[in-house]
Specification:
44% helix, disordered N terminus, alpha+beta, rotamase, 10 strands, 13 helices, Chitinase A, domain 3, peptidyl-prolyl cis-trans isomerase activity
Length: 391
Amino acid sequence: MWPIKKAARKTAVLTAGAVLSISLLAACNNGNNAAAPQQPKAAEQAKDNSPVVAEYEGGTITENEFNKEVSMLKFLTPQYAQMFDMDQYREVLLEQEVAYESLAQKASEAAQKAGATQAEEQLTQLKSSVDPEQLTQMLKTSKLTEQDIKDYMTRVLTASEVMKEKVTDDKVEAYFNEHKKDYTTATVRHVLIGLQSADGKTTRTDAQALKLAKEVKAKLDKGADFATIAKKYTDDTGSKEQGGQYKDQKVGNWVEGFKNAVLKQKIGVVGPPVKTDYGYHVIKVESRTEKEFKDLTAEEKDTIKSQLASQNFSNYMANDVPKMIKSKNLPKAPAPAATEGAGDATGGATTPGTTQSPGTAGDASTGKSTTESGAKSTETAPAESTTESSK
């Protein structure tokens, strides 16, 4: 029931919005980079006579191009459509578009090919996840084409590859050494006494939750079977049917209080109730294994590389893009009109890696989001890149 790790957030909310689209496309695969680089804007620029809304070192952004960018984001993430109509976010989206364009211009041949290959894969996955007639209607509503989607994804993922090229193996290893504890794996059992019960029918005060958690610990200290107790008392639907157990999980996936307890508690001993935003946890650590850098899988190393690339993009947005923009003339946002969300037909999950819509809860062990009924859904991005990954 409870999301074990909250999405990481930058100090400036606008920065999170600026890199949102990269996080939504974070499920790209490396694969063989054999596709030819795309030139998505050439034909459009020949026809586009709309006013220039941004001039930067190396190019311009027209009003038509910017409006298409906004439409694309609304199509991919309809749950954030209102946000993209806010003037402050429109300013950031304009800077984001400059970032994508400028990075694509300076991309190496390898980055261009990788971006094009991954965009093709993303479009294929999108088309396979949506009924063809629904997709046609969604595109029509958004005034977009499949080629528009492919061009956008190519540009974003090419920019992502540019940032990943800046991340050396030494930087990946340094990051691991700095966050080594987060890569410890553990098998734990826990009982969550939430401030709200799993069925949502009971609300508890902090004192009431703590009292019940202490009662649960007392039962366990007297020899009660942990699995039986967990199935009876826990408010964590993600582990309830497993008797409260999460097996061989990376502790970095867990919220700070829970993670620290798992790292410090003695093996096989039921610890005192641990408080998090979700209530009180009674935890028993069954095993704990520390990792060395040589033990990381290729996927784990690539995840670190993507996290560092995400930071590179954030730094580029904050430090480089403002300096390269010569002028901006962005019209105010149009008055909001009643529209049907482009992604409603798929429940808001329009692309692989899409952030879950409000109302979902998290599987405490895997980082996978679950619906309120407990059914598992799309896997979320790594915690440090939930909204800002540039993979």
